[in-house]
Design a protein that fits this description.
33% strand, alpha+beta, 27% helix, globular, eight-stranded antiparallel sheet
Length: 192
């Protein structure tokens, strides 16, 4: 049965077992189907969640050019890790605990989401040849990413399912205005 123990306890407690069973049966896969693969290829952002070995959680945001998350096959996808703040919170969690959740949301066209849960591993750029993908695909990825991708996170898909559109707002894409400085929340002054 899909889902985890806590879900099942609450489904029984709140009387949603039948509804949940229908969801697991009709909306959840252990792989990416062709529509899910297409959907991912159309996204330029996603949210990720990881937890360390003790279960302390972290969520983060990833973005890139359209299709920056690459679907290798129905059970494998990968995304580039670009230069960031150097903290390595998500990657550090993956080292301790490989479980990862990805959330793709289309706010613009269809107001729909896709959850992808699985196990993550970290590959350096020179290790892409370890994946079962053609050399020309690796060359194309390397040419497209250049030196922007410092390394890659590869996900072995365990669950893929819909996030319904009910509470997803319709947004409009605008050009980004440049923000100066990296202390929007005024943390420096609170630490003094």
């Amino acid at each position: 049965m899909a889902g985890q123990h806590g879900e099942h306890l609450l489904q029984e407690q709140y009387g949603t077992m039948k509804k949940a069973a229908a969801f697991y049966d009709k909306q959840m896969l252990d792989h990416l189907n062709s529509v899910m693969k297409w959907f991912i290829s159309q996204q330029d952002m996603m949210f990720i969640s990881t937890a360390d070995g003790r279960g302390k959680c972290d969520s983060s945001f990833r973005a890139g050019a359209l299709g920056f998350v690459r679907v290798i096959n129905e059970r494998t996808l990968m995304y580039p890790e670009y230069k960031g703040n150097g903290v390595m919170a998500s990657l550090g969690n993956i080292v301790e605990n490989p479980h990862i959740g990805l959330m793709f949301i289309d706010f613009i066209e269809n107001q729909i989401g896709l959850h992808v849960n699985g196990k993550a591993s970290i590959l350096e750029n020179h290790q892409l040849t370890l994946l079962d993908i053609p050399d020309e695909t690796i060359t194309t990825i390397q040419e497209k990413e250049g030196k922007k991708a410092e390394r890659w996170v590869v996900i072995e898909v365990e669950e893929a399912y819909i996030h319904c559109s009910k509470h997803i707002p319709k947004l409009q894409k605008l050009n980004k205005e440049k923000q100066k400085g990296g202390d929007f929340f005024k943390v420096r002054q609170d630490n003094n």
